[in-house]
Amino acid sequence: MAMEKLILVINIGSASKKYSLYSGNNLLLTAHFERDKDSFALSYSNETTLSTTQDIFENALETFIKKAREKALISEAKPIQNIGFRIVAPGVFFAVDRTVDEEFLKRLNAIAQNDLVHIGPMIQEMEKTRSLFPNIQIVAVSDSAFHSTLLKVARDYAIPKALVENEDLYRFGYHGLSVSSIASNPKLKEVIGGKVIVCHLGSGASITALLDGQSVDTSMGYSPLEGLIMSSRVGNIDVGAVLNLTRKHSPNELEEIFYNQSGLLAISGLSDDMRILLDAEKEGHGGAKDAVEAFVYHIIKYIGAYTAVLGGVEAIVFSGTIGERSFIIREKICKELSWLDLNINNEKNISAVDGDDISNGGKVKVFVIHTDEAGEMLKKMSNVVN
User: Fold this and answer.
1) What does the pLDDT read at residue 386?
2) pLDDT of the residue at 1
3) Do residues 303 and 246 share a domain?
4) I want to staple 281 with a disulfide (CB 3.0 to 4.6 A). Which of 173, 288, 300, 329 is the partner?
5) N- to C-terminal Cα separation, the chain
6) Which residue in the list 143, 217, 272, 273 is annotated as catalytic?
């Protein structure tokens, strides 16, 4: 009997690194490395999260491979055979799953000049991966591909066509791997008409309107900056305001402001961490209260808009770190949606685990579903390599 392939799946964010090792479809080991300002954390599979060092964070891939070797999951007799790499990058070229070659790297480096904050860490990790595994084909799995079904009216910006075509300026959408994993969840087969709104709420946050499992509109656009207020990302902002800022700030300065100094952090003046903000709100911190209210308000606004786009809604899904873990945020959002004939059961909401329907009668189901980006990447890789 042939041995199952060992497959490594890599997911790099601006402040996190996630690794998953599979044997065929069986998950063997995961690791999550995270940076929060000057502190660093690491957790393996279902083990407790522990603090770690900057050096370990910067050499996360080597640390993960060493752990896998210690557990005898990787050896000379059992080498890694395929690598999947999540790609978060604007452009029609990057909205397709494809193998990484010199042309791919050339294009990725070219757009990195316009988005060093988000794409820079991804390129560094890819270079490290290629140096550690020079003979293994890397599959770039697009985080935007799932949104290729966006309605044309949702995809296009209202700017001159020559600019659109020359600069590749479309609303590509992101969190596609997360939403795709949710769209194929068996729980959503209960939704007869296929009208579903997915709220992926984490440090990056987006909302997607699904019709029969396909994305028709999503809140993120050309970049992961558009849409909702996020932990430290700006969300929607008037172009006129941005133009005004360009008179006093360089593009690099604005990139840092919009990605790392805005969102919940800016409104609260306290933190970009929703857990800290909810605790501070209880203690009477005005900035924290303002930030939480703004976060909830814009989510409700998008749910209302996408209900109109879909011609109704039959299910709302909460996913992502905040969406899955914060029963308080779910309660605050759902409380404002009673006009949809949506009610939640408080006890179910507080104790919700993956796959639970926390609705309490009413026409709209409310699910809490764990997103599985790594599992989705694994599925998509099989379409690119044998």
Assistant:
1) 58
2) 42
3) yes
4) 288
5) 17
6) 143
| 228 and 302 Cβ atoms separated by less than 8 Å | yes
Number of domains making up the chain: 2
Report, as an integer, the average pLDDT of 207-215: 97
Cα-trace Rg, the chain: 21
CA of residue 343 relative to chain centroid, distance = 27
Give the pLDDT score at 116. Answer: 62
24: CATH: 3.30.420.40
Residues 6+ apart with CB under 8 A from 229: 205, 235, 263, 264, 267, 291, 294, 295, 298
Model pLDDT for residues 36-53, shown as the tens digit of each residue: 878 899 999 978 888 999
Same domain assignment for residues 140 and 259: no
pTM of the model: 0.95
- Per-residue pLDDT of 126-165, as tens digits, reads 999 999 999 999 999 999 999 999 999 999 999 999 999 9
Residue 334 and residue 357: Cα distance in Å, rounded?
13
The reply to whether 136 and 224 lie within a common domain is no
Shared domain check, 217 and 361: yes
User: For all residues of the chain together, what is the average pLDDT?
Assistant: 94
In this structure, is residue 160 part of a structural domain? no
Residue 47 lies in a domain: yes
Is 341 noted as a catalytic residue in this protein? no
The answer on 339 and 225 residing in a single domain is yes
Confirm if 318 and 367 have CB atoms less than 8 A apart: yes
Report, as an integer, the average pLDDT of 358-380: 95
Helical segments of the chain, H only: 54-58, 60-70, 102-112, 116-132, 152-155, 161-167, 176-183, 239-246, 251-260, 263-268, 274-282, 286-310, 320-325, 327-335, 346-350, 373-381
Alpha-carbon span 46 to 7, nearest angstrom? 20
Residue where a domain stops, chosen among 89, 111, 146: 146
Place of tokens 């402040």: 15
Same domain assignment for residues 121 and 28: yes
91: region left, alpha or beta (phi > 0 left; psi from -120 to 50 alpha): left
